[in-house]
Design a protein that fits this description.
The complex is a heterodimer. Chain A is α/β, with parallel strands linked by helices. Chain A has 10 helices and 14 strands. In chain A, helix 2 crosses helix 3 and helix 2 packs parallel to helix 4. Chain B has one domain. Classes of the chains: A alpha/beta, B mainly alpha. At the A-B interface, helix 1 and helix 2 of A face helix 1 and helix 6 of B.
């Protein structure tokens, strides 16, 4: 089956500065894909290339199986996007004007749909106010409405909750999940790891222009959790676990062994198979933030 | 796609206060100009022959051409269009709003084309505002001076043609401003570069080159502003404005009007092509 979005060895250099070194991604239909990275990691540049705004130095982008370049952007008509630190708006036009313009851009979007979307993002009372008077949160809400207007198959959101209050952030998370449940693919870029952890099915971690990890959220969390074991023969257990594929680290900590890289059930099953029966197993569950720190630390 | 983009550009253009302020400015300055000339004409110190000449300048049908000349390329019209085009093109880089149609899969060439095509409307509005105000003011002057208006003296076709030529004369500066705004992505830079070119280069080079005479002087006639002037002089607008002044001794009739029309079109296409090529390659997120 064709991926909704696929990039192959995407690279972008601005003069001597390498903003994106090598980004290969694959986003499948109906999933929420989290794109994580610290500020300056190359997230916005990567999204800029996907949206036809920046010419890649090298590499390939495919949307719905079709190649996308700044000269060939037709597949983008099936994409809705919110891009940049703030939604892109013209300050002397109203929220309603922006949605009407968006409807003209994509060739659809009735007055009723515009009214419904304004209501959905909580901008009904501000519909005819100039967007130059909007707060950052209001701009983001309008940007979201503009991205959703033509019911896109793929939604690309770059820091969508930027400037929003906690209530607004929660609403956006719920909106993303409900869109995904209805079949919309969502590509969500954020440096808010907690936000991504709550909504994403899969994530890619980007640092210094390179993808460091790309997997299901649960797999990454399991892979980075620490399994503490008490075993009768530590030397034998260490030797056995070091031979187990997927194990990242095996360390002695007093009377316990600390193992990372695999879920506790897999580790226990392997030890039992080798005749080592653990007397105690506990797991310290990491969150995505710890996974992120671990992955980026390992890269450094 | 072009139709949708034209509708969008129209919304953006009509939403700008600058456009309406500029049109009001043309109207006010035209009225002031007529008032000032009338004031001079009424002074007893002015010889009778000159007073009659000034009166004929302000009455129908020539009075309208004074108003149109004010809105032409090297006068108020040129300046106002440079300001408007700079704002329309450069500010969208600041707002990053060029990303909106690109993200919607609209080809970049369509974006450039629709923006320039929609900018033809202000050029026409400017010229027709000058025509309307010129008609009203010269009708009032004619009534005051002659006590009646002889409608048969007004050649509507000639006036409409002069109005369209006035708008057409604005094209090379509009396209030049468009190109500089795309190249520099800055309102201040495009304003200063184009205004500098129009008032310094176009203002100083032709008189200087004319001193050399022959082929060198002919080169000056091929500059965008001089081609527009040659076209305007064919309609009598420039001649009207230069009565009684020490205008540069450049042979405005040195270029055939048909050649001037083609030359203006060529400059416009070249400037727009450069802008379109540059826009194709630009990073729109910076």
């Amino acid at each position: 089956m064709t991926s909704v979005l696929e990039t192959q060895h995407l690279r972008k250099a601005f003069g001597d500065v390498l903003a994106v070194a090598d980004v290969s991604l694959r986003v499948e239909r109906g999933e929420v894909f989290g794109f994580l990275g610290p500020n300056g990691a190359g997230k916005t540049t990567t999204i800029g290339m996907i949206l036809g705004l920046i010419h890649p130095t090298a590499g390939e982008i495919r949307l719905f199986g079709e190649p996308v370049t700044p000269q060939r952007t037709t597949p983008l008509r099936r994409v809705g996007s919110l891009f940049g630190a703030q939604a892109t708006l013209i300050p002397y036009l109203s929220a309603y004007d922006h949605l009407k313009m968006t409807a003209q851009l994509y060739g659809g979007g009735s007055a009723k749909r515009i009214t419904n979307l304004l209501d959905q993002v909580g901008l009904t009372t501000a519909a005819h106010r100039k967007t130059g008077q909007f707060s950052t949160g209001m701009k983001q809400r309008l940007g979201l409405a503009m991205a959703l207007l033509h019911a896109p198959e793929l939604l690309i959101l770059d820091e969508p909750t930027n400037g929003m209050d906690p209530e607004g952030m929660r609403e956006v998370r719920n909106l993303i999940r409900s869109l995904a449940n209805r079949g919309t693919t969502v590509f969500l870029s954020s440096h808010l790891l907690h936000e991504i952890e709550q909504v994403a099915d899969r994530v890619a971690i980007l640092n210094r222009g390179q993808i460091l990890a790309q997997d299901r959220v649960q797999t990454l969390l399991a892979g980075s959790s620490v399994v503490r074991l008490r075993v009768p023969n530590m030397d034998l257990a260490v030797a056995s676990l070091r031979l187990l594929p997927g194990v990242k680290t095996v360390e002695r900590n007093g009377t316990h062994l600390e193992v990372t890289g695999l879920p506790s059930a897999t580790i226990a099953a392997h030890l039992i198979q080798d005749g080592i029966i653990p007397s105690e197993i506990t797991t310290t569950q990491n969150d995505l933030e710890q996974v992120f720190l671990q992955v980026t630390h390992e890269a450094v | 796609m072009l139709r949708s983009m034209l509708q969008i550009e129209r919304t953006k253009l009509y939403g700008r206060k600058t456009l309406w302020i500029e049109l009001a400015l043309v109207a006010v300055i035209t009225v002031l100009l007529f008032g000032l000339i009338l004031l001079v004409q009424s002074l007893e110190e002015v010889p009778k022959a000159e007073r009659e000449m000034i009166a004929s300048l302000l009455t129908l049908p020539d009075g309208v051409k004074v108003s149109l000349a004010l809105s032409s390329n090297q006068m108020l019209g040129g300046l106002l269009m440079i300001v408007l085009v700079s704002m329309v093109v450069a500010q969208e880089y600041t707002w990053q709003s060029y990303t909106l149609p690109v993200r919607a899969g609209i080809p970049r060439l369509t974006i450039v084309l629709s923006k320039f095509l929609m900018l033809l409307i202000p050029a026409l509005l400017l010229a027709f505002t000058a025509l309307g105000i010129g008609l009203i003011m010269s009708a009032l002057v004619t009534l005051t001076v002659e006590g009646q208006i002889d409608v048969s003296q007004i050649n509507i076709v000639d006036l409409l043609l002069s109005t369209l030529i006035t708008a057409y004369s604005l094209l090379p500066y509009m396209a030049l401003t468009f190109m500089i705004a795309v190249l520099t992505r800055s309102l201040a830079a495009s304003l200063s570069v184009v205004a500098g070119y129009v008032f310094l280069v176009e203002g100083l080079v032709p008189p200087l080159l004319s001193l050399f005479g022959g082929t060198v002087a002919q080169i000056a006639l091929l500059m965008p502003g001089q081609l527009a002037n040659a076209l305007l002089s064919a309609t009598g607008q420039m001649n009207n404005m230069q009565i009684g002044t020490d205008a540069a001794p450049v042979a405005l009739d040195g270029v055939d009007p048909a050649a001037a029309v083609i030359g203006i079109a060529a400059y416009t296409v070249i400037f727009l092509a450069v802008a379109a090529l540059r826009f194709q390659k630009q990073d729109l997120t910076a």
